Amino acid sequence: KTIDQVAPGEQQPESDHFYKGEQSEAGLYNGRHWRHTRAWFSYGLNDKNQEAKFLQITYAGIDKGRRFDIYINDSLIATVESTGSAQEFFTVDYKMPPALVKESNGKYTLKFVAKTGSVAGGIYGVRLLR
To answer: What is the pTM of this model?
Structure first.
């Protein structure tokens, strides 16, 4: 099911996916790497057959009250407000807009943008799914 994936906060996977960002930090929590930002950060994702259906993001339950937007190729696909669920780690699948997939030429820029006064993340995993 996985087309492409990034391990946020890990140097080689981020380098391989053209990490860029401002006011961003990375770290380790319960054995898992993460990245968050007070501004924005982005990755490049590949989907050479243009078959992406979902973007799956892994979060941690400790990050309560964080507000941010998720963009793909400058199109807003989700606004997130973390609730601090009791689960340690959990994933959320976001539907990829079919028109965006069709127009992508198999390349996506995934961008996390913090709302004013908030933090985007922590992001513990990124997967592009069929």
So the answer is: 0.96
